[in-house]
Amino acid sequence: MTPGYSMSNRPKLPPVRPATPADIPQAVETLTQAFAHYTWTQHTVSATNFLDRLRATNDLFVRRIGLEQGRVWVTDDASAVAVWTTPHAPERTRALFTELAPLFADLAGDRAPQAARARQAMAQHRPTQPVWFLGVVGVHPDAQRGGLGRAVLAPGITAAEQDGYAAFAETSAAGNVPFYESLGFATRATVDIPDNGPRSWSLLKKP
Questions:
Q1: In the beta sheet, which residues pair with residue 186?
Q2: CATH fold of 17-205, please?
Q3: Cα–Cα distance, 81 to 68 (Å, whole number)
Q4: Which of 58, 131, 178, 207 would bridge 31 by S-S if both were Cys, CB 3.0 to 4.6 A apart?
Q5: Helix crossing, 50-59 with 90-108: angle to 10°?
Q6: Cα 3–6–10 angle (5° rounding)?
Q7: Is the C-alpha dihedral spanning 153, 88, 90, 191 positive or negative?
Q8: Residues 56, 94: Cα–Cα separation, whole Å
Q9: What are the sequence ranges of the domains in the chain?
Q10: What is the C-alpha to C-alpha distance for residues 207 and 163, in angstroms, rounded to an integer?
């Protein structure tokens, strides 16, 4: 059985707060450095000007998706970032993703076809019911192994629990699966991404 996540039985976590527009530059840089060698981003983003493309993609996630339509939490120095979408305004969220889709495709560059097929493969295993959806979470490489990932995820997990909704996450790193399981998530599906893409996991934490 996957253990449930409870703030009461975890060590004291570093302080985390809601992000503000002033945090955008550092939050974007944190995510860019965290995902610079991630198999999913390397598979779905062109190698040409890769870091610039990745930085612009993360800016859209933080600025447009998280701060406009969802929730974003950061550590005080924004060395850890978590961006969620919430189930509270699904029509607005769908409209925003439709609006941003051409921008994401442009940023993918010559990997756009592979990126589209990768998203389609994962979409088949996403919940149809409303959930708190973890869009992206990252810890700057210089700050990893210090509990910041757990800390920056805790507010979103707690908010989902208080709302009575499930929380959903995806990862393309096998080593992240036990970490999510320690937070109360269970693997929903294991997906071999087309075009020799990375094996990926869909994970759900029931309310």
A1: 204
A2: Aminopeptidase (3.40.630)
A3: 16
A4: 58
A5: 170
A6: 95
A7: positive
A8: 20
A9: 17-205
A10: 8
Positions of E strands within the chain: 16-18, 71-75, 80-85, 131-139, 166-171, 186-192, 199-205
Question: Using one digit for the tens of pLDDT, what is the confidence trace for 111-134?
Answer: 999 999 999 999 999 999 999 999
Tell me the per-residue pLDDT of 47-72, one tens digit each, with 9 for 90 and over: 999 999 999 999 999 999 999 999 99
Q: Is 36 helix (H, G, I), strand (E, B) or coil?
A: coil
Closest C-alpha among 10, 27, 48, 51 to residue 136: 27
Gyration radius of the chain's alpha carbons: 16
The single residue listed with the structure tokens 């700057």 is: 140
Q: How confident is the model at residue 14 (pLDDT cuts 50, 70, 90)?
A: confident
Q: What is the DSSP letter of 86?
A: -
Indicate the residue type of 64: R
Which token pair is 178?
A: 């036990």
Report the sign of the C-alpha dihedral through residues 69, 73, 76, 80, in that order: negative
Q: What is the pLDDT of residues 16-57, one digit of tens each?
A: 999 999 999 999 999 999 999 999 999 999 999 999 999 999
Q: How many angstroms separate the CA atoms of 77 and 105, rounded?
A: 31
Please, what's the b/e burial string for 113-124 (b: 16 or more CB within 10 A of its CB; e: otherwise)?
Answer: ebbbebeebbee
Beta partners for residue 75, in sequence order: 16
